[in-house]
């Protein structure tokens, strides 16, 4: 649950619910391959608009070669956008920036991803808003969800006595109509009991 800018009218309020688990099978392991599934629900209210997402996700995990594993996943569902047009005061009732008289719209959504990892290394690629839905009925002309690409990788350097490890990582974020962003991260892990992290974002 997140409540931002408390005290301001129309402040953003967001709720998330996420549940996931492996699909039961005997002797589940990476070498024979196994599947997992989950449910994700998100509700976001900002001003006169509300976004609600309902998603089911599926992932398949398997060893590629010795000590290198791959996970392929699909995050799919529906997005619902609603807005209270009655809360908007406009001079022209035909203003297309406000959208149509209908106040609820549902769109399909698909988000694939792939993840490679071993004991000390990981790398992944995911794509958000693959469908690229047009939202002109909600936000007006030329409103469309752009595809977003996320590429991340990290590596763990383990001390010789295995008492601590240093984990640098990087995430590259890109969309066709925006400025690429880079997150550079560094974590210190003490015996899997205490973790301290630093992050710097270039936008």
Description:
The chain is mainly beta. Helix content is 2%, strand content 59%. The chain contains one helix and twelve strands. It has one helix at residues 136-139, and strands at 2-3, 13-22, 34-46, 49-65, 68-83, 104-117, 121-128, 148-155, 157-158, 164-174, 181-190, 194-202. Strands 1, 2, 3, 4, 5, 6, 7, 8, 9, 10, 11 and 12 form a twelve-stranded antiparallel beta sheet that branches. A hairpin with a 6-residue loop joins strand 10 and strand 11. The mean pLDDT is 89.
Number of helices: 1
The string of secondary-structure elements, in order, is EEEEEEEHEEEEE
User: Share of helix among residues?
Assistant: under 10%
**Which percent band covers the strand fraction?**
over 45%
> Shape, please?
globular
User: What are the segments in which pLDDT stays under 50 over at least 5 consecutive residues?
Assistant: none
Largest sheet: 12 strands, antiparallel
Oligomer: single chain
First-residue to last-residue Cα separation: 26 Å
- Total strand count, please? 12
Backbone structural class? mainly beta
Mean pLDDT: 89
- Using only C-alpha atoms, the radius of gyration works out to 21 Å
Key descriptive features of the protein:
about 200 residues; mainly beta; 12-stranded antiparallel β-sheet; 12 strands
Q: What is the gist of this entry?
A:
This protein has 203 residues and is an all-beta fold. It is built from one helix and twelve strands.
């Amino acid at each position: 649950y997140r409540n931002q800018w408390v005290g301001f009218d129309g402040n953003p309020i967001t709720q998330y619910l996420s549940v996931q688990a492996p699909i039961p099978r005997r002797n589940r392991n990476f070498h024979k391959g196994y599947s997992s599934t989950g449910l994700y629900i998100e509700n976001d209210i900002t001003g006169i608009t509300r976004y609600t997402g309902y998603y089911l996700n599926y992932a398949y995990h398997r060893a590629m070669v010795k000590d290198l594993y791959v996970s392929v996943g699909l995050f799919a569902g529906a997005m619902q956008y609603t807005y209270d047009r009655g809360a908007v005061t406009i001079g022209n009732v035909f203003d297309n920036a406000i959208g149509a008289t209908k106040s609820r719209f549902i769109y399909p959504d698909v988000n694939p991803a792939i993840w490679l990892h071993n004991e000390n290394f990981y790398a992944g690629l995911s794509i958000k808003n693959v469908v690229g839905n047009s939202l002109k009925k909600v936000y007006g002309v030329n409103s469309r969800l752009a595809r977003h690409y996320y590429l991340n990788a990290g590596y763990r350097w383990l001390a010789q006595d295995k008492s601590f490890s240093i984990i640098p990582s990087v995430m590259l974020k890109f969309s066709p109509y925006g400025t690429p962003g880079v997150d550079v991260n560094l974590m210190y892990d003490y015996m899997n009991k205490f973790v301290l992290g630093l992050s710097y974002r270039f936008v």
